[in-house]
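Why do we bother with holo predictions? Because pocket geometry can differ from the apo form. Keep that in mind while you read this record for magnesium ion.
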Amino acid sequence: TRGFYIGRFQPYHNGHHSVVETISEEVDELVLGIGSAGNSHTRHDPFTAGERIMMITKSLVDSDLVTYAVPIEDLDRNSVWVSHVQSMSPEFDVAYSNNPLVIQLFTEAGVEVRQSPMFNRDVLEGTEVRDRMVEGGDWEKLVPEAVTEVIEESGGIERIQRVSQTDS
Ligand code: ATP
Ligand code: MG
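The structure, written out:
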């Protein structure tokens, strides 16, 4: 079986990584859909699709799971969003999500949806990781080591701090 798991992964953090580990017990292959793929260089979406592909690929390099990271651009039309996803992704049998809208759209399209448990959600949340990056806090322990390397290589901390400022 092949699964599908979508997120913005801004950045890919240890909560996502735990979800993937859990899913790996149920599927042979997993597509990671990189949502809002066209967005980058904002406080909410600091990293490019390419950087997020690197975070995911390098974090999962030692995993037995066959994974594909597929950028998915936003579509301002929920009624055909599942077709949009399917048009960009390797075919999949089951979609994993906890997001109510995503669950609704896949279910209406006849795709099986499974939910995964939340891991340490009080700190393992993209918003918390980005806040710590902006404020100079300890974000590194919330992400896989490979993600720290990608962010350092791309000047990601300086970037998110700068784009979080306003002019004047
Ligand atoms: P943001 O604050 O930017 O929304 P996020 O942590 O919610 O960050 P997403 O990219 O939106 O990250 O997450 C993709 C999916 O992963 C979501 O459906 C979310 O429910 C799930 N997820 C995120 N963090 C965890 C976690 N700690 N445990 C389990 N699932 C998680
Ligand atoms: Mg979220």
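The beta strands are 2-7, 29-34, 66-71, 94-96, 112-114.
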